[in-house]
Design a protein that fits this description.
The strands form 3 sheets. Strands 4-5-6-9-8-7 form a 6-stranded antiparallel β-sheet. 25% of the residues are buried. It is built from 8 helices and 10 strands. Helix 1 packs across helix 3 and helix 2 crosses helix 3. The protein is α+β, with helices and mostly antiparallel strands. A hairpin with a 2-residue loop joins strand 5 and strand 6. The chain has 2 domains: 64 residues, Orthogonal Bundle (Arc Repressor Mutant, subunit A); 159 residues, Chorismate lyase (3-Layer(aba) Sandwich), CATH 3.40.1410. One of its GO terms (biological process) is negative regulation of DNA-templated transcription.
Length: 252
């Protein structure tokens, strides 16, 4: 599709709009590599400078993403994740009509480090199950999860872990325990080499880091987790409300 060189609209803006329209039409699909600069010049009949300006703008706007040594790709739409949600990854994917996908990187029993034993309210060096996984959305890594489960609360949990089951399903059906509350701490960090490898992003890319502790109905800690999300793939939403009774309270 050649652009209109006689239009008052700058060519790079016309090119941006054409690429956006082609993405919306499915000509370029999410996760697909965009044609090279030379190919884009031929397709749209513009100079390399025009292509670079248009592509750079679309990268900055989050529609495209550059991967060093691989090219420029169409960005997946951001996933919306409720920050206060108590459900696990499998439950969340099911709500979206998606098939949950996970990949276990490692798991095993370790002595609880001081920060983990404090979060789980157990004696330091107590046995915990450490589970490291990648959680996917439409075949793309969405989350790097590093979790620790209290074996005091969930004895022999390590015998039930595998890729095709939800951890929360195991906890509910094998132990009759339901996570009903959690606390979360949200920070922004930069991806290190391991995080970039597992999340298929660049070293130094911004990540959301969520530190989470899940509790049962008796406020007993079940597990603690560190969750890393590429900032360009997820948007956190917050749905909060004040109870009617509290809202009607008069100041004393």
């Amino acid at each position: 599709m050649k652009l209109n060189t006689h239009s008052s609209t700058p060519l790079y803006m016309q090119l941006k709009q054409s690429i956006i329209e082609d993405i919306n039409k499915g000509i370029y699909s999410p996760g697909e590599r965009l044609p090279t600069e030379t190919e884009l010049c031929d397709i749209y009949g513009v100079s390399r400078i025009t292509v670079r300006k248009a592509v750079l703008d679309l990268v900055e706007e989050g529609l495209l993403i550059r991967q060093q040594g691989k090219g420029t790709f169409v960005q997946y739409p951001k996933v919306k994740r409720e920050l206060f949600a108590v459900n696990g990854h499998a439950e969340y994917m099911s709500e979206l009509g998606k098939i949950p996908q996970t990949k276990i990187l490692s798991f095993g029993i370790i002595p609880a480090p001081a920060n983990i034993s404090k979060s789980l309210e157990i004696t330091p060096e107590s046995d915990v199950l450490e589970l490291q996984r990648i959680l996917y959305y439409d075949n793309q890594p969405l989350t790097l999860e590093i979790s620790h489960y209290s074996l005091k609360v969930l004895p022999n949990l390590n015998e039930h872990v595998h890729n095709s089951v939800s951890m929360y399903d195991i906890i509910k059906h094998k132990y009759n325990i339901t996570p009903v509350h959690n606390t979360k701490l949200l920070n922004m960090v930069l991806a290190n080499a391991d995080e970039a490898k597992f999340l298929e992003c660049e070293v130094g890319d911004p990540l959301f880091k969520v530190e989470k502790v899940a509790y049962d109905a008796k406020r007993q800690p079940i597990h603690s987790s560190f969750l890393y999300y590429p900032a360009n793939r997820v948007t956190f939403t917050i749905d909060s409300s004040m109870s009617q009774e509290k809202g009607n309270e008069s100041p004393s």
